[in-house]
Amino acid sequence: xxxxxxxxxxxxxxxxxxxxxxxxxxxxxxxxxxxxxxxxxxxxxxxxxxxxxxxxxxxxxxxxxxxxxxxxxxxxxxxxxxxxxxxxxxxxxxxx
Length: 96
Fold this sequence. Notes:
The chain is of the alpha+beta class.
């Protein structure tokens, strides 16, 4: 068995085991796998997978300033921009 196909073989089995409700020993017995070999490949795959660590990020609310006809100026949060522009566009069209 080539190295890549071994990796694929064990990746498929470790994924299937994670999705099963079986213990490692029961899974290996059911699939006629040697428990020590299964454990070796499971640990090897765990070491190779990058670990993602959540990092809290501050929420930065950017503000946007709009200059409208007639000297009107508005400052609003960027998160409200899409909804506000839609409303302003409709109001400006109605004024024509």
